[in-house]
């Protein structure tokens, strides 16, 4: 993994003009809400901080960028994909808001999570409102492509929810022995929870630009691979990430006793019992640091990094094979590289 | 209000064959989920009790019945509306599951509410899953009507969410003076929270049966009026309903200090200060009984009952004016009468 800073900036750069298009479209989608719902929705999407001040940090805008690039890659205008870009960003934010409630996570993007800032009930409602706005956004696309667009989003949404259910169920499963989570189960969960919406984003952009079915399907597959790569990098950052960059506590996933890929890999190694002892014991920074060390020595970190590279390779090959517009493909590839090299 | 039992049975009766169609379609929609999500979703929709036993009670099935009747009234087959019937019932159940979390309600349909039975996090997720399944269901209708169907559902969903936000905001507003909730604000909230989905149900059925725009619009308006009538009856039952019939505690809405129409009417009467004293004091059965008496004497109950009758009259007039199939209109009218006469 080389030249991390440069590739991370490339992601931001590729989102420049497109990012501005998306920000305007998001703001106008949100205009359908009145306070206090509007203020909370703007907080959740990173447009405003609690109290309504402009926010310092915002999300990466990965999914809407993928949607716009999907349209451009299919030979259309980025603008055609805007209602889809808004829809996938809103659906993504909806999942963050509700997942933070389910997981009890108190921080998100260097700020309190929405439920922590405004309460659980309001956060449930804001998530619902974001999802309603997402649908509303797709309800405005030309009738000729609306049906296909909705079918794409509905399918992805269901996969995301089923993936989140699997992720929650993993928490109650044993660390070892019969009933322990397998690496295959973990990847299936990540394909739903993370891959489905990234695949949907790219395909939705193409569909809104009038792309034929096989092009949209190809972009969906490539986006899904990117999602798996994204999740693998997330798993690495969740253990070894810099809290200043990620906005999450140090050893965040270990603290939450998450059974992520690096942990599962290490659980099949020789230091299994020592790792289980740390992961099921009292949470202190020394123990967490020891666990991170055990996992790294057992090859858990390398395995996740290889997974990210492998999925990136598959996505790249798919994008090169499809009959797509070259400049957009180059931007997609830069975006993909940046995702795998990112630090936050 | 006469012959309550007979009209209540008429509602059930009109749902007989249609109810069976809906139950089968709901069961097959839910087959996309695996345990434990599937079990919780079946609990929420009243198909199963906690633990998976067949449930004793279920909902009234009002919205899916309206969808099927909408199709029939537009001259189509009930079957054409089934994906829409499933979608509106799932959206309705989604709102119940999430509203019970937001409102802290522990009972629903003579059973624990979902969050009470399974926890808040899982209940948030089940609500999301139900909404995803609703979209999935609409994703399967013929492409020619899918776009319009989705636009209808998206619009209704947004109105429902905005209505629920208003309802929650009412809780923090003063009982009297500047900033007090007005009856107009209350009706606007009810039109969103309850009216929108009933209107959508009838219109969606018609759209799926290929009805022209003006017929669908007329059914939407009639359904919305029925929703307002339904809410007015709900408000009466929330204070004076029989707990054995409603499945809710006695004086349930007063216990929750809800600013419903009967209360708002009484707050503009001469016993205002006495009522405010009771509604803001300690909750005991004697105080609640006193409040119910004050509200009734101030005309709050009569006003809500008149509101229900008036909206029923408007809906009836709309249904008689539209170019609809007679037998389905008669069933719609019987359903509407039953709604206003219901005890649960």
UniProtKB/TrEMBL annotation, chains A, B:
Specify whether Lyase is a keyword of the entry: no
Entry's Gene3D superfamilies?
A: Farnesyl Diphosphate Synthase (1.10.600.10)
Signal peptide range equals none
Q: Which UniProt keywords apply?
A: Magnesium, Metal-binding, Transferase
Name of the protein in question: Polyprenyl synthetase family protein
Give the species: Actinomadura fibrosa
Task: Check the record and name the Pfam families matching this protein.
Answer: polyprenyl_synt
PROSITE patterns per the UniProt record, alphabetical:
POLYPRENYL_SYNTHASE_1 (PS00723)
């Amino acid at each position: 993994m080389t030249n991390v800073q440069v590739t991370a900036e490339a992601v931001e750069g590729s989102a420049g003009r497109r990012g501005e298009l998306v920000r305007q479209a998001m703001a106008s989608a949100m205009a359908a809400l009145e306070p206090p719902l509007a203020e909370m929705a703007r907080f959740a999407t990173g447009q405003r901080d609690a109290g309504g001040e402009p926010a310092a940090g915002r999300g990466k805008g990965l999914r809407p960028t993928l949607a716009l690039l999907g349209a451009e890659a299919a030979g259309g205008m980025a603008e055609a994909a805007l209602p889809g870009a808004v829809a996938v960003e809103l659906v993504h934010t909806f999942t963050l808001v509700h997942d933070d409630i389910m997981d009890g996570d108190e921080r998100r993007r260097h700020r309190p999570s929405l439920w922590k800032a405004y309460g659980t009930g309001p956060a449930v409602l804001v998530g619902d409102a974001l999802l309603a706005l997402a649908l509303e956004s797709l309800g405005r696309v030309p009738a000729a492509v609306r049906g296909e667009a909705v079918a794409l989003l509905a399918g992805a949404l269901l996969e995301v929810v089923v993936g989140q259910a699997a992720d929650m169920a993993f928490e109650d499963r044993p660390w070892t022995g019969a009933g322990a989570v397998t690496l295959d189960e973990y990847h299936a969960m990540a394909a739903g929870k993370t891959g489905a919406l990234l695949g949907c984003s790219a395909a939705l952009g193409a569909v809104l630009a009038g792309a034929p079915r096989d092009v949209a399907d190809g972009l969906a597959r490539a986006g899904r691979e990117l999602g798996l790569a994204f999740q693998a990098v997330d798993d690495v950052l969740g253990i070894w990430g810099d809290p200043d960059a990620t906005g999450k506590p140090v050893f965040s996933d270990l603290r939450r006793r998450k059974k992520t890929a690096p942990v599962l890999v290490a659980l099949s190694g020789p230091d299994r019992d020592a790792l289980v002892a740390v992961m099921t014991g009292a949470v202190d920074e020394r123990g967490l640091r020891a666990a991170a060390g055990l996992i790294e020595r057992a090859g858990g970190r390398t395995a996740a990094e290889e997974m990210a590279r492998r999925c990136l390779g598959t996505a790249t090959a798919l994008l090169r094979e499809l009959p797509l517009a070259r400049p957009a493909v180059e931007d997609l590839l830069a975006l993909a590289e940046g995702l795998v090299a990112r630090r936050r």
